[in-house]
Structure formats: C-alpha cells, structure tokens
Amino acid sequence: MTGGTRRRVAWVFPGFGVGGAQVRFCALANRLGERCAHSVLSLNGDLACRERLLPRLDVAFPDSGHRAGRMAAAVWQARRVLLGLAPDVVVTSNWGAIEWAAGARLAFLPHIHTEDGFGTEERTRQMPRRVLTRRLVLRASKVVLPSRNLLRIATDTWRLPHTNLRYIPNGIDLGRFAAAVPARLPPGDGPVIGTVAALRSEKNVARLLHAFGALRATQKARLVIVGDGPERPRLQTLAQALGVAADTYFAGHSTQAEAWLAGFDVFALSSDTEQMPLSLLEAMASGLACVCTDVGDVRSMLSEANRDFVVQPDQGAFDDALRRVLLVDRVAIGAANRAKAAAEFDEESMFARYAGLIGVGLD
Hints:
By secondary structure, the protein is α/β, with parallel strands linked by helices. Helices cover 39% and strands 16% of the residues. It folds into two domains: 183 residues, Glycogen Phosphorylase B (Rossmann fold, 3-Layer(aba) Sandwich); 171 residues, Rossmann fold (3-Layer(aba) Sandwich). The strands form two sheets. A seven-stranded parallel beta sheet has the order 3-2-1-4-5-6-7, with helices on both faces. Strands 10-9-8-11-12-13 form a six-stranded parallel beta sheet, with helices on both faces.
C-alpha cells in the first residue's frame, strides 16, 4: 500500500460460522493480503470460519456487544461500536446485520451491504416490515447482490435506487477443484451421491434423504453429507428410519470441500431457498452432474445439458430427477458445467469488483 497505509474495513456478519458469505469474505481477504486491516464482528459470537483466513492477515475479532432486543437500541449500540473502530468502510451482511447497516449510516460512515438470500421466514414471500426497513436503511448505501433474482427483488420490491445496486456473481477457484485429490470415502457399492451444506432447515437435506431412500429400494448407491448444523441429529434419525443409515455417511464440517466433491458421482442440492449457492459453483468446478431444486439462480447457473435435472422443490420430482441422472452420461454433463463455471464465474473477476467497492486496487 502507498505509504504503508492499509484500508480499514469493518465486516459485520449475523454469525461468522461457515456459510457462503463468510467463505467468500475469507477468500477475498486472503486475496487482498496486506492491503487491508479487517475487523470482523460476529453478532452471535460464532467464529468457526476464521480457520479459513491466512495467518499473516491483519484481522481482529472485536466483541460487537450485540444483544437481542429493541431495534433502536441495537442501532445506537452499532453506531457506538463502529465509531470506536473508525473504519474507512463498513460492510454488512444480510438481514441479520440490518441494525448495523443503520448504525453505519447514522455514523456517516461509507457503507456497503451484501444480501445473499433469505431464511425460512422469507422463503416464499417478502415480509412487509423488512421490505420497508431495507427500503429506508439501504437507500444511500451500495448494495451487492450475487444473483439476478435478488437484483430483481432489490429493484422491484425494495425499490432501491438502481444506481446503487451491484450485481456481483460469486466466483470460484477452478484450479483448486480441478487438482483435488479425492477424500477417502466409506466402503460400499454403487455411485456416490453427495451434498455439501450447512445442516439447517432451509437446506432441506431431509428431501435428499427421502430421495436416496427411494433410490436404494431399486439399486445400490451411497450418500455422503458434508457439513454440520442443528439439523444433524434429526437427519441421522431419519436415515435410520428410512433404512439407509448403513449407506449414508455424515462427514461433518470440512474445510476441504474439493476433496469430497472429487469423490462424488452426482452432486445434490435439495434446498427450499437459495440465491447463488457457492456449493453449486464448487460442484460445477469439480465437473459434476447436479440434481437441484429450482430456486434462486440455480437453473441459470448450470449448463443447458444439466437443466433437465433442476426440478421444483417437490419430493416426487426430486426423487425422479435423482433416479434419472444415474441413467445418463454424467461425465458429459459435468464437463459442460465446468466449462460454464470457467466462462462465467471467475474468482478473480469477483475479487476485483469487491476490491474496487471497498477502495483497494489489485495487482
């Protein structure tokens, strides 16, 4: 940096557990290197994703002092903390940090807000109170959206100024996935169907388990579930109830998604709500055929060859798609997905656009 000055950036996340927004930040911070000094505020105290950051980075994890309560009090607390940090720019993430977006505006700090999607409460409709709050709080901020569906919502529903909206698709490190050495899978016969997901209700991994149960009734196969979360005990009980526990492996949390993906024959995404899932990009970069629910930008992300296996979030349709994908040329579909990832979802392009927004140049 010129004169040794680092750009000071405060990042506010509802939680800093492993998720798409958090993983993207870690990749960006690693790429920015010594150009920035980061303060990461995790409002729920979870810091699990910090393991993805390079040790040499200038990253602090101050206590946000955030407590659940009245919004007005939370906004003024956020303003006080942000003024104390004195960042050059504040970046807030999703609805869970909206009080901090308001606090940044009250502190007259340059502000960027990123929206990556919705929880179960906004899966099918936008909540009027949240729509109005976003419309008021985010009007003067730069708002980054990784999916065209979110861009449409921000324009038509939240009615934010189009000049302040930035569509920046998530990017992927193709080389990391192309060179991956497969993880050691549990013994068994048949194709390996896998998913990488936080085990939360909106990911609806239960839908995948039911589909796998229907498939196992007629042929051999294995299911690998990479990820952890509050739904894991219920899903393990469901696997037992469906009679597929012996063929289902819960791998738990992993920072080596590329190794697991390298061992899959099919990637499955069974979510009720998504926008531009990073796990799907990783599966595409791994050259996998994918069976997915038709949510967010999922259909447009995938190659034309894969779109017959993108179905409505309906159990019967998902069961059928999982069965059908095992009857086609999955290698050709996976190659088409990888080519599309290389053509449209380049990681360096994403890095450059985020760096420009926070005022940092890349080499």
